[in-house]
Design goal:
Blueprint lengths: L6 E2 L1 H4 L1 E8 L5 H10 L8 E4 L6 H4 L1 E7 L7 H13 L9 E2 L5 H11 L4 H4 L4 H19 L17 H10 E2 L3 E9 L1 H29 L2 H25 L2 E2 L1 H31 L5 H33 L5 H36 L9 H11 L10
């Protein structure tokens, strides 16, 4: 962690999140290659399908997450859009507008500028601009009604307009490959604030569980459980740093889940230790702890094993968006199960022995009979009377 650092995702390092809807089913490799040509590192770009199955347009949606590379707030959005326009699908000619990207005002301004129908000459001043604006709004409304993307310019219904208006539209515009549905910008300051909040939330969770265990058991049990949880968190963070897996908000959710899951296993073992101590007060604490671990071992292994299978399915089939979450859970469950058995209980045992060794050995109390006999033996022997 000290040498390699962390691969912070867009949530913490800042960046751009775009929801892009394509005309046809998108090719993720082509999208990644287009962004690479646009100046983005492929290993820093996250592309994920939205997962919706309601319509064809929803199946054509993808999330694109990229690091922030431009100082301007809208700079990355503009840069990503230009990269996809130039390197994905069939590029729109430079002298034409992309109907899947432009707004009604831009389209109306281009139609008015070229005035292919010569409405400025035949209509009163200002009427030509209004007619082109009404036409442009009709086109954009049909695009939005179709899910945000048009696949064929000839399918636009323009029955209420002059047929030559459709010819003018084909002269000034063309159909692009995609439409940017939404865009979110996460600044570095927001990412820093999210990172600090995530650390605070994790600390508060551990402190709260420490208080609960101290109340239900003893504070020594709580300290041992928290040490085991800290071990799990550090191991997971270390592996994410070693392999440079991305850390996002879903990773924080996985860490909090891991903290609770590991603490649950530890409490099960501690509860069995407490039950055994009530029945075997005179026996060695190490033997009691060992028996408690053995009695709960099958329960711990079976429960953790079944959870591990579910998490393994997430790792294999969950996709890029769930990658941080599933990997953190996979590592955390493995080491969380280990720490509950081999760290929490040994720490508790060490703590108990440490304080027992520091307690002074009390002198055994003397009984009255032994005290009297000692005094008698200590007193001088009386002289016997002379015999005759």
């Amino acid at each position: 962690m000290v040498v390699r650092g962390f691969n912070l995702g867009v949530d913490f390092a800042g960046g751009t999140k775009l929801t892009v809807r394509f005309v046809s089913p998108p090719d993720e490799n082509q999208i990644r290659d287009a962004l690479r040509k646009g100046g983005y590192s492929p290993d820093k770009v996250v592309i994920q399908r939205t997962g919706k199955q309601l319509s064809q347009s929803d199946r054509n949606e993808v999330f694109i997450n990229t690091p922030q590379t431009e100082a301007d707030v809208d700079g990355d959005k503009r840069k990503i859009t230009e990269a996809l326009q130039q390197h994905y699908g069939t590029p729109v000619p430079a002298d034409k507008l992309d109907l899947n990207l432009v707004g009604a005002s831009t389209l109306a301004a281009r139609l008015t500028e070229q005035d292919l129908l010569e409405l400025k000459k035949t209509l009163p001043p200002g009427e030509a601009e209004k007619e082109y604006q009404r036409f442009a709004e009709q086109v954009i409304q049909q695009r939005d009604a179709a899910g945000g993307t048009l696949s064929d310019i000839k399918r636009i219904s323009l029955a209420s307009f002059d047929p030559k208006m459709a010819e003018a539209l084909e002269q000034v515009a063309a159909i692009g490959s995609f439409n940017v549905v939404s865009a979110e910008i996460v600044g570095p300051q927001v990412g820093k604030d999210l990172r600090n909040r995530a650390i605070i939330v994790t600390i508060i969770a551990c402190f709260g569980m420490l208080l609960f265990i101290a109340f239900r058991f003893e504070w020594v049990y709580g300290v041992a459980a928290v040490i085991a949880v800290v071990h799990d968190v550090l191991i997971t963070l270390g592996l994410f740093s070693l392999f440079q897996w991305e850390i996002s908000l879903t990773f924080i959710a996985a860490m909090l889940t891991l903290v609770g899951y590991s603490m649950n296993d530890t409490i099960v073992i501690f509860d069995r230790i407490r039950e055994q101590l009530a029945q075997r007060r005179r026996e060695d604490f190490a033997a009691v702890t060992n028996d408690a671990i053995n009695q709960t071992l099958s329960r711990t292994v079976i429960t953790s094993g079944l959870t591990l299978l579910s998490v393994l399915a997430l790792v294999l089939f969950g996709g890029e968006v769930l990658k941080s979450f599933s990997l953190a859970l996979l590592v955390g469950i493995l080491f969380g199960t280990y720490s509950s058995i081999a760290i929490a209980s040994p720490v508790l045992l060490w703590w108990k022995r440490y304080f027992e060794q520091r307690q002074p050995i009390a002198a055994p109390a003397e009984s009255p009979s032994s005290s009297a006999s000692s005094k008698k033996s200590a007193s001088p022997r009386a002289k016997s009377a002379p015999t005759r």
